[in-house]
């Protein structure tokens, strides 16, 4: 259920509204989180904190696959890298290997190279 609005102002919520946390909607929180997954250094951090060893967290990553749907995909700032990482995170091998700093560094280098391809003569 949507929060009440008055005179075009921002939505107001109550502390009991299950769709909001600290003033942010579940959609906003999940959008920010799923986009942060396209950062290899953040993935390395999550791996170092053993998040990828948690069955519950892995199940949450599977749940996030809904971002592939066109109604949600349009909100992703970098859909290509974000969706690729969501796909890779479904693989146990990738979840183990991203713990290796050189793997994260290679992903950063490859991403930078792909982003700048064609900009230099």
TrEMBL record:
Source domain of life: Eukaryota
UniProt name for this protein = Mediator of RNA polymerase II transcription subunit 31
Gene3D superfamilies in alphabetical order: Mediator of RNA polymerase II, submodule Med31 (Soh1)
Assembly information from the UniProt record: Component of the Mediator complex.
Q: What does this protein do?
A: Component of the Mediator complex, a coactivator involved in the regulated transcription of nearly all RNA polymerase II-dependent genes. Mediator functions as a bridge to convey information from gene-specific regulatory proteins to the basal RNA polymerase II transcription machinery. Mediator is recruited to promoters by direct interactions with regulatory proteins and serves as a scaffold for the assembly of a functional preinitiation complex with RNA polymerase II and the general transcription factors.
Tell me which species this is from. Saxophila tyrrhenica
* Pfam families reported for this sequence: Med31
Spell out the subcellular localization from the entry.
Answer: Nucleus
Upper lineage is:
Eukaryota, Fungi, Dikarya, Ascomycota, Pezizomycotina
Which InterPro entries does UniProt cross-reference here?
A: Med31_sf, Mediator_Med31
């Amino acid at each position: 259920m949507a929060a009440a609005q008055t005179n075009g102002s921002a939505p107001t919520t109550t502390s009991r509204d299950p769709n909001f946390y600290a003033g942010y909607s579940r959609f906003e929180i999940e959008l920010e989180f799923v986009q942060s997954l396209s950062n290899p250094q953040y993935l390395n951090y999550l791996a170092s904190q053993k998040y990828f060893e948690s069955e519950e967290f892995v199940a949450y990553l599977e749940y996030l696959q809904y971002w592939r749907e066109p109604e949600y995909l349009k909100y992703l700032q970098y859909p290509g890298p974000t969706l690729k990482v969501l796909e890779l995170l479904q693989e146990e091998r990738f979840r183990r290997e991203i713990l290796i700093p050189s793997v994260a560094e290679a992903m950063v280098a490859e991403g930078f190279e792909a982003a700048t391809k064609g900009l230099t003569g």
